[in-house]
Every structure is written in C-alpha cells, then in structure tokens.
Write a structure and sequence with these properties.
Mean pLDDT: 87
Domain Bacterial bifunctional deaminase-reductase C-terminal: 4-177
Pfam family, one: RibD_C
Protein name: Dihydrofolate reductase family protein
Radius of gyration: 16 Å
Distance between the termini: 8 Å
Largest sheet: 8 strands, mixed
Shape: globular
InterPro entries: DHFR-like_dom_sf, RibDG_C, Riboflavin_Biosynth_HTPR
Number of strands: 10
Helix content: 25-40%
C-alpha cells in the first residue's frame, strides 16, 4: 500500500492562504527546501492543486538558467523530471512531466495508493480538505510560519479528530519555520 503525504505551508493562526487568496507569504528558503528535497526524490508522484502547480510551473522549469545557488539547479532539474499529477477541471496541456487527473481525482489517487505509489500532495487548502474528507492523507507535514495572517483560507475549516495522529518529529529552521510531521496511527508501519 502506498501513501499520501500532505505538505502544507500554514501561518501561525492556521491559514493556508492569506486574505484575497494571497499565497506568496511563506518563507520558503534554501535551508527549508534543501531539508526536504531528498524526501521528495523518494516520492513516486507529486500531486498539486491547479493554482499551486501554476505557481511552481512559472518558476522552477527555468530556475537553473540563472541560478542563485547550486540548490536552484538541483531542485529545478528534479522538478522538471518528477512525475506530477494536477487536480484540476480547467488546466489544459500541462508541461514538465505533468498530467491532469481524470474526472474522478479521488478515485484515481485511491487506485494509485492501492497500487503502492507514494505521493506528496502540495495542493491548496481546498484540494487538501477534499483529500482529508476521503481519508486519503496518511501523513501531514505542516510547515508553520512565524506570522499571523488574521484571515484568509484556513487549512482546517471544522474540528479534526487528531486522536489517530502520532507525532513523528518536529524540525525548527533558522527562519523560525517549524515543521511538524504527523502520521496516521494506521500507517505506523508505512
């Protein structure tokens, strides 16, 4: 059995998007990205919501042409080659080893998971909540940023039963971002 791990940037007050759908507030620096690049390499598939995919597709495919650091070269090459699946009803003809889900993205991900694929979900809050509602999140990697947005789109709209979650680890970065890694109890041996 494969797994789906949600990687989500959230504010200290729990918002995944700021007011007016602002998504450019997270501190995603080289230290943070370097920490998780090796883990991303082990995923069979990267899952995205449409908006998140479009943000990354506008930057990473050419980030190695005028690199700020060796990390940019490494990550850009990884991102272009990595298999990607976008949950969208409107995206057409994606590039960079990417395809769009069929008419039933939940069933498609269920089948991939049952077939043993390990997937990392970088969706927006709506995509993440849809996967959570269908019990498709096996692990949570929440990157909590040291800022209060005061409004926007929360990751969790309603109370969540956390009794089945086990804390795997907590990492603190120089930017004061804290990564909390939780795993569903049923997935302890994943």
């Amino acid at each position: 059995m494969g797994s789906v791990t949600l990687w989500m940037q959230i504010s200290l007050d729990g918002f995944a998007e700021g007011p007016d759908e602002a998504v450019h507030w997270p501190v995603v620096d080289e230290e943070l990205c370097t920490e998780y690049l090796d883990e991303l390499r082990s995923a069979d598939l990267l899952l995205y919501g449409r908006r998140t995919y479009e943000i990354l597709a506008a930057f990473w495919p050419t980030a190695d042409l005028a690199p700020v650091s060796p990390f940019y070269v490494d990550f850009a090459r990884f991102w272009r080659a990595a298999p990607k699946l976008v949950v969208s009803r409107t995206l057409r003809n994606p590039s960079w080893n990417t395809r769009v889900t069929g008419p039933d993205p939940i069933e498609e991900v269920r089948q991939r998971r049952a077939a043993g694929q390990d997937m990392v979900l970088f969706g927006g809050a709506e995509t993440a909540r849809s996967f959570m509602a269908h019990d498709l999140i096996d692990e949570f990697r929440l990157f909590v940023h040291p800022l209060l947005l005061g409004g926007g789109v929360p990751l969790f709209r309603s109370p969540v039963d956390t009794s089945g979650l086990q804390l795997v680890d907590v990492l603190t970065f120089d930017s004061a971002v804290v990564q909390m890694h939780y795993r569903q109890q049923a997935c302890l041996m994943c």
